[in-house]
Amino acid sequence: MLSEPEPRIAPPLGVLREVERVSQRTWAAEAVRRDPDYFTRLQQQQAPEYLWIGCSDSRVPANEIVGLAPGELFVHRNVANVVVHTDLNCLSALQYAIDVLGVKHVIVTGHYGCGGVRAAFDDARLGLIDNWLRHVEDVKHRHEGELVALSKERAVDRLCELNVIEQARHVCETTIVQDAWARGMPVTVHGWIYGLSDGRLRQLGFTAAHAGDVDPAYRASLLSVTA
Ligand SMILES: [Zn+2]
């Protein structure tokens, strides 16, 4: 006689329901208590000035880190905050943010202790993700001369910074940003890094507001050694 199979997803689903119940009760109620029109206003429009391109890491929640409310920060996240010239997901977020929402600042934010960057540094074999992290490994090879002179921990931290600088440059090289600059739109691209150990955001010296800024910003940021 066949017996009923055990419901395999019951425990995780239970946890999810509890998270949903508690977060809804506390976060939504608190938002309305502070501002009775909060959700009505949010529903009507979003007018963010910033696009955040960051890592998917659960310890790097974009809005909380910069202290911006929902509606104020447009967000794209992927493992190791990579900007690939042919990634339609990232490019679409960038195009929508600039051309439709009119964001004025694009901020590529990496973080120290990034598991994706460490895996690329170690040439780890984790599965499909290895192909994505190959882009970070390319950054490592481009800066091999600098990285070999550092201890392992400092080298991984430095690769986290170098990865931000390279990806910020990639943002500048997209047709979306190049065309926006050609039209005279005020779009500035930044490279920042977040410290998991102290909660601080640091600028990496990459700030480009015109096509002519990109090379000087790239060179200046490479010289700003902070790791
Ligand atoms: Zn990460």
List the SSEs and their pairings.
Blueprint: H1 10-34, H2 38-44, E1 50-55, H3 62-66, E2 73-78, H4 88-101, E3 105-111, H5 115-122, H6 129-142, H7 144-147, H8 152-173, H9 175-182, E4 188-194, E5 201-208, H10 214-223
Parallel strand pairs: 1-2, 1-3, 3-4
Antiparallel strand pairs: 4-5
In short:
52% of the residues lie in helices and 15% in strands. It is α/β, with parallel strands linked by helices and 227 residues long. It folds into 2 domains: 1-44; 46-223, Beta-carbonic Anhydrase, Chain A (3-Layer(aba) Sandwich).
The CATH topology of the largest domain = Beta-carbonic Anhydrase, Chain A
Report the radius of gyration as a whole number of Å.
20 Å
Structural class: alpha/beta
CATH architecture of the largest domain: 3-Layer(aba) Sandwich
Tell me the name of the CATH class of the largest domain. Answer: Alpha Beta
Q: Which assembly state applies to the chains in this document?
A: single chain
Number of strands: 5
Q: Tell me the β content.
A: 5-15%
Average per-residue pLDDT, rounded, comes to: 91
Principal-axes geometry comes out as globular
Question: Ligands bound here?
Answer: zinc ion
